[in-house]
Amino acid sequence: MRAIIVGSGAGCSMSQSTLTNFVEGTLKAKVPGVTEVVVLDDAKERFIETLKR
Fold first, then answer.
1. Is the pTM higher than 0.70?
2. Which domain holds residue 9?
3. Which residues touch 34 (CB under 8 Å, ≥6 apart)?
4. Residue 20, class by beta-carbon neighbours within 10 Å (0-12 exposed, 13-18 middle, 19+ buried)?
5. Could you tell me which residue, 32 or 11, shows the higher pLDDT?
6. pLDDT (0 to 100) of residue 38
7. DSSP E strands: which ranges in the chain?
8. Which residues lie across from 2 on neighbouring strands?
9. Which long-range CB contacts under 8 A does 9-12 form with residues at least 24 apart?
10. Alpha carbons 31 and 40: distance in angstroms, whole number
11. Cβ atoms of residues 19 and 39 within 8 Å
12. Nearest C-alpha neighbor of 18 from the set 27, 44, 32
């Protein structure tokens, strides 16, 4: 699973920890087949989308 953290969490130094410790653990427990959650850099993704236009 890929996740993009946006809003106030996007710049937070603890966002990776939150994602790994809470979100990934919850998804692994509740959604069959989820083995990993990867944080995507929101600014990078927006830049790539802009280039595609």
1. no
2. 2-52
3. 1, 24, 27, 28
4. middle
5. 32
6. 76
7. 2-4, 38-40
8. 38
9. 10/42, 10/43
10. 20
11. yes
12. 27
The strand pairing partners of 39, in sequence order, are 3
Q: How many domains does the chain have?
A: 1
| Degrees, nearest 5: CA angle 11-12-13 | 115
13-37 pLDDT, tens per residue? 676 677 777 888 898 999 999 888 8
Neighbours of 26 (CB within 10 A): 12
Closest CA to 41 of 1, 4, 2: 4
Distance CA 28, CA 24 (A): 6
